[in-house]
Amino acid sequence: MSDTTSPPTVTPATATPAATRELVITLFELGREVTSVLDLDELLQKIPQLIARLTKFTAFAVYLLDESKGELSVAYSVGYPEEHARTLRLRLGQGLVGTAVAEGKPVLVNDVHADPRYVEAVPGSRAELVAPLRRKGRVIGALNLLSDTAGQFTEIDEMILRQFGAHVAVALENARLFEQEREYTATLEALSDVAREFGSILNLDELLTRIANLTRRVIDYRTFGILLLDEETQELEMKVAVRYGTSNIPQRTKLGSGLVGYAARHKEVVLVPDVSRDPRYINLVSDVRSELVIPLLVKDRCIGVFDLESPELDAFGKNHVEILTLLASQAAVAIENARLYETIRANEIRLEKEVRFAQRVQAALLPTELPKRMKGVDVAARFAPARELGGDLYDFLAPEPNGLVVAVGDVSGKGVPAALYSAFAGELVRSRTFRRRYAPERSTPASVLASMNTILYQRQLEEYYCTLCY
Asked: pTM for this one?
């Protein structure tokens, strides 16, 4: 690559105090410049630009170490074949880069084809210089320079890259922390949005599906399930199971069985980096390597769990646990509310059916026409309760020929209790009226009302009374 600024041409044998001082000043300025960048992508792009002011190279790469896998991958490169830069992985100790990281010290080779450790990344390379990136006693990656000219790099270049690498390591850590903080803030904002959306959904099936979809906004899962506890059977029932965007057949798991059952019974998070090493694991999906189970808690009750599975080892970390625990607490409340709403709605539907039936019964208990024996008499009545059911009553009876009894009454209160009391009072009107046919002495309206009053009083329903015209 071409350089806009020529690097210092200083060798150990020719270095003068002035040249050394100039180099130190340049390194200090470049170090300050690189550590001032907090955006990770911008930082990675800036590193080769700054190194080009110190030494010449034809290809460059920043390798970062994945400690869990023990391998190095290219985070950013210049002059590397695109496919190679995307797929290249080096184990610790593999190649010159892997050797530098494993040993924690620079590696300088001016004839790579004579070194058996060399792993070709850029065709045509002849010389290679690697400086490990150390931060707080740990090696986090490496800077790698390649040249198509044998003998390109010197000990001064090695010293420069090592010193500059110290600044880069600090800058990378700062950028990573800044990126994590920014992601965490974005995640909290997303959680707030998700919580608001949870609270607006009262249909349980719709809510569970929405939870699965919204969870992907805060954590990218491969397999995700929501299991809810059936209190009667003490089983966890799979309500939503998403894998590659499709739903699986629902399954049931006994409370305490498997990782999900353990998490639900003990009301605690279960994080397993390698399920093959955990005796609690039940193998239901063949390629699962790691699993995370988060209980759904409402106060001191567990109503279910979130279950995440991955084909990769150690796929879930503390940040996933923290995020999903917050999400689970919000989801648990929403699920409980949706369940309560469904229960209330079911009761409302049942009560509506019962009230409609009671209306029919009440209407059937009221007379619709005069007795057949009455001629030359017209009677009309209209019943319109203030609510679905009311305490009004009326009746017209003919206990003997050429006799008509008319009763009109009203029970205190409204609704179902008043309707029940009204039905009882109406039946008393009929029974006391027709009883006069068999009595030795003809009863009077006063005696009928007195008899009814005694019976109603004996029921001891002091909060209800009936006003009756007979």
From this structure: 0.54
- What does the radius of gyration of the chain's CA atoms come to, in whole angstroms? 43
Residues 172 and 46: their CA atoms lie apart, in Å, by: 12
User: Which uninterrupted H or E stretch holds 78?
Assistant: strand 71-78
Burial 127-140 (b: 16+ CB within 10 A, else e): bbbbbbbbeeeebb
* Structure confidence by residue, pLDDT tens digits, 101-144: 999 999 999 999 999 999 999 999 999 999 999 888 889 899 99
Residue 7 clears pLDDT 50, i.e. is over it = no
Residue with tokens 């390649």: 146
Contact criterion met (CB below 8 Å) for 321 and 345: no
Q: What are phi and psi of 172, to 5 degrees?
A: -65, -40
d(CA 432, CA 421): 16
Q: pLDDT above 70 covers what percent of the chain? A: 89
Tokens (6 digits) for 331: 């989801």
Task: For residues 103 and 105, give the distance between their C-alpha atoms in angstroms, rounded to a whole number.
Answer: 6
Q: Distance (Å, rounded) from C-alpha 395 to C-alpha 426?
A: 8
Q: DSSP characters for 341-378?
A: HHHHHHHHHHHHHHHHHHHHHHHHHS--S--TT--S--
Distance of CA 106 to the CA centre of its chain: 46
Short-list 64, 206, 228, CA closest to 142? 64
Above pLDDT 90, what percent of the chain? 28
Q: What is the DSSP string of 129-142?
A: EEEEEEETTEEEEE
Residue 151 and residue 110: Cα distance in Å, rounded?
Answer: 5
Q: In what order do the strands lie in the sheet with 466-469?
A: 392-397, 405-411, 466-469
Residue 76 to residue 83: CA distance in whole angstroms: 13
Rounded Cα distance, 377 and 404, in Å: 10
The token duo for 297 is: 């808690």
Please give the Cα distance from 167 to 281 (Å, whole number): 45
Query: Three-state SS for 224?
Result: strand
